[in-house]
Each structure stands twice: as structure tokens, then as C-alpha cells.
């Protein structure tokens, strides 16, 4: 009998420079021996330095792709990145409604990407509102960095903002990449457990190699999705994903220009 691999549905944006977005997700999940079904929610014109344009895909195409895949696969996890528009987020919410009705314990991980690595918007306020109202209630875990946390909740205090999001259902892992201690390269990832979930709050102080990297948020959240697809608990998956990201940064590579790219393969 041929082996089987856990299938992970990824809905995310295309960064044609290859450093972030859905390419980072595909590489990470492949490295973790998961099968990624990649659905593109937003197309971008982007190089290693700058986001030039962003074009959400038509919601009708997204919907057809999701319906077709749902009919064909039993997913072990879902990973959501930049969804592009409120219309697309609504289509994704409908898909999550169907997927979670069939499989209530499936892990749904959202990296609420609102900006590209170098700045440049990948979503507007109506997308943010739709994430809060329609998508986040289906999520098992969301992985905002501090700027995303503040934008989504309007709440300046990170612990209060995390509790506000956790009250909507999911656990909230606030990633510390934007708050790195430059003296010793440490950062803190903080987990707040969701209103409807078992587990306890936790904090990890991790040390990463020095440098500016691209696509770290995508890589980290995909690694968590991959490990949860393999059956690890949220906290165990986070710990394993932290090890994975450390390795990818230690062996990161450079191209002609731009930030370093984690070696995910
Ligand atoms: N998705 C797309 C399409 C992007 O272009 C980017 C960054 O440029 C991201 C997601 C987020 O990348 P990061 O992992 O650096 O937060």
C-alpha cells in the first residue's frame, strides 16, 4: 500500500518573489511531510523589497476551488493567511462552516496577515471586520503579531487584546517577532487559551539568530498547522514549530537583494 500524508488546506496570498505567502506555506508543509492543497486568495505584484500591487482573486473562483477540494479531500488541518477582501473572507467562512460540520475537531489556524513584510496593505477594514465576525469564530488558533493584534482589536494593551480575541473562540498566540530584544535576540511568544478550548496560558522565551527575514510568520503558522495535522496538541505543535523556524533561520539564504529567506526545504 502506498503511504498517505495528512492533507492541509491552505488559503493564502501569492508573493511572486517566493519569500513569503503561499510558497512559504507549501515549502513548510512539504518539509513536514504534509500534503498542501494551495488555494490563492490574493495575487500580488511584489519583489524582494516592496509590495507594488495587490489583487484579491474573484470570490466566485475561490468558492469553486474550495467546493471542489472539499468534495475530494479529508483535510487534517486548515491554514489561512492573507484572504485579500471581505468577500473572500465570507467565502472562506462558508467553507469553514462546511468543513467543521463534517470534522468538528479539525485544526484551523489563521495568520491574520494585513500587511506585506515590507509594509503595503494586503487587506482593508471591511476584511478585518469580516475576520472578526465570521472567520475567527471557526478558528482553533490565530497567530497575530503585535501590530496585527492592535489593528484587529483596536486595543493598545496586548494581553487585553489577546483576551478579546480569545473570547471569540480560538486560542491566540501573539508572536514576538516585532518585539525582539536586540541585545540578546530573544523574543517572547504568548499563548492565551480560547474560550471554548482546554489548555492553559503559556509563554515561550526563544532565541533566534540575528537578521532580517522574510516570510517568518507564514513559515511559523504553517509549521504549527502541519504539526497539528499530524495530531500534536496546540502547545506541543507550537514548541515543535519554534524548533522548526529556528532551524530555517539558522540556514537562511540570500538572493541578489532583500531580506534573508528561511531555508524551509
Ligand atoms: N502573504 C503574502 C502574499 C505576502 O506577500 C506576505 C508578506 O509579504 C505575507 C503573507 C506575510 O509574510 P510574513 O510571514 O513575513 O508576515
From TrEMBL:
Superkingdom to which the source organism belongs: Bacteria
Pfam families from the UniProt entry: Phos_pyr_kin (PF08543)
SUPFAM superfamilies found in the cross-reference section: Ribokinase-like
Record PANTHER family: HYDROXYMETHYLPYRIMIDINE_PHOSPHOMETHYLPYRIMIDINE KINASE THI20-RELATED, PHOSPHOMETHYLPYRIMIDINE KINASE
InterPro entries, sorted: HMP/HMP-P_kinase_dom (IPR004399), PM/HMP-P_kinase-1 (IPR013749), Ribokinase-like (IPR029056)
CDD domains hit by this protein: HMPP_kinase
UniProt keyword list: Kinase, Transferase
One function term, GO molecular function aspect: kinase activity
Coiled coil ranges: none
Domain Pyridoxamine kinase/Phosphomethylpyrimidine kinase: 15-258
The protein's Enzyme Commission number: 2.7.1.49
Pathway in which this enzyme or protein is active: Cofactor biosynthesis; thiamine diphosphate biosynthesis
Protein name: hydroxymethylpyrimidine kinase
